[in-house]
Amino acid sequence: MVMRQWWGTAIVAALLLTGCGGGAQAGGASGKAAALSQDEVRDVLPDDAAMPDWKQSARPTAVRMNDLYRREACPIKGNAGCEESRFFGASTFRHDDDAAYVSFLVVAYDSEEAAEKAYDVLWEGSYGRKAGPRARTFDLGPLGDERDARFGTSGFEGEPGAVTQTRVGTTLLWTEAASTGKGGIDEDGVRELATVLADRSRQAQNGDAVSASLGG
Known about the structure:
It is built from five helices and seven strands; from the N terminus they run H-H-E-H-E-E-H-E-E-E-E-H. By secondary structure, it is an alpha+beta fold.
């Protein structure tokens, strides 16, 4: 399968999470932004209502962070970047019209400071490499508190792939998008996906109803 090398890690993470949800684990804010509960992390993840014209491959699921999920979320030496992490969540979707796929990942931290400290560790140590060695950076605009994005290839025949990383308060957020055919995804489409995830995290941390959606 042409996409396995680039896309496989996100798929494995989402599959491991399927069916492992739990109840709320409320916690107070530590720093400038609220530390999310387990149920709130699940709400941040886009669902069917947030993704019109896409089909859900793995339902939004959040789990308490443990050794297994640290290896998935922070796949670098010593699982660096997962210090003071609380919960890990994922959901995945496919778009049949253009053979596109997207995985949304969330790591929720105890504090804004912990998320900020983990940001560069995870981008430079893992996620920033996922779009291939010749990937180009692209602009996400004023998204979140910190943001990075790269667009490259997802397979052996030049199929497009992109990864974004955003920090919104106490959360780190990723979109990993790819297509089995050339032209299946583009920068504008990936930017929209990343914006939906960031907006949902901001809504949750503000105590608002989580409602951000594509085209909404």
